[in-house]
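Entry for DQA complex. Fields follow.
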Amino acid sequence: MTQACVYVLNGPNLNLLGTREPEIYGADTLDDIAAKLTERAEALALTIEMRQSNHEGHLVDWLHEAQAEDAAAVILNAGAFTHTSIALLDAIRSIRTPVIEVHLSNPHAREAFRHKSYVGMAAKGTICGFGADSYLLALDAAAKLK
Ligand code: DQA
C-alpha cells in the first residue's frame, strides 16, 4: 500500500529561516524543519512533500496539486500572504483536501495587521506560536485526519 502524503507548503521569506529575525522565528532553517518532519512522518507512516515559494500563485497551484495527487492533508504556512490573500482563501475552499494553517510565531500576539488570517477562515485548524514544533504538531494532527 502506498503511504499517505502530506503537502507542507511554505510562503514568502520562509526560505530565509535560520537568519531571518531569529528572535521571532528561531534558529532552525527550512531544511532543518524538513528533516524533523521527515523523521516524524516515518514514525506516522506518512510521507511529506515539502515546498517553498515567494510567489502567491505557486501556493495556489500547489493547493490544487495536493487535491489532484490525493494528499491526505496540506500543512500551510503562507507567511504574510496569510493576512492578505483572498486567492489562497478561495483555493483552500476550492479543494476537499484538509488544510492545517501553521505559524512559527503567534500572529495574534503581534501587530494588529497579523491578527486577520484569510487562510484561517478556510483552514481545518490552526497551530501557531510553537516555533518549528508548530509544524510537527500539525503533522500529528494531519495523521489523525487520515
Ligand atoms: C509567519 C507569521 C506571519 O505573520 C509572517 O508574515 C511570516 C511568518 C510565522 O510563521 O510565524 O512570514 O507565518
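NOTE: The CA atoms of residues 18 and 27 lie 4 Å apart.
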